[in-house]
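Sample pair:
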Amino acid sequence: MQTSVFIALGSNLHQPIQQVLSAIKRLKVEKDLSVTAMSSLYETLPMGPQDQPNYINSVVKVSTSLQPLALLALLQSIENHQGRNRDTGRWGARTLDLDLLLYGQHSSTDPVLTLPHPGIAFRGFVLHPLFEIEPLLAIPSLGSVKQLLVTLDEPCPAIVKPETLENFHLV
């Protein structure tokens, strides 16, 4: 059975645009999932310490037969493959961060994987791309993405200009 899933991508080290696009490219060739939508790339300020570069963020929607923990393991293997260092501290700079935001209407408080993602309602760099690709999306127990954006009341981050992406082609 296929499930619709939303994944947030972010990077602020080692050519962040290429890091995010390479991760999307990798998702596109995985046999157990299919990328069905991709948001624009957004440039955002770091969430934590401000003495680090800005982030490039995006959200993809995928359809998958993988169970949540198997999908999480796949996402972490992609992060590791792209040089993710997990010793940078909370909200530290990173080559790649892949967060499983939503797995269908599934809710979980498992210590390994909380769904929906616990920070989803407070992160404009996630809500704006989500709204771009699925404006009518309802997040279990939280409400619509549109309502969450109104409550958050943050301006939309800058979208990376298409000419920046012209030399990078997705499969």
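The chain has a mean pLDDT of 88.
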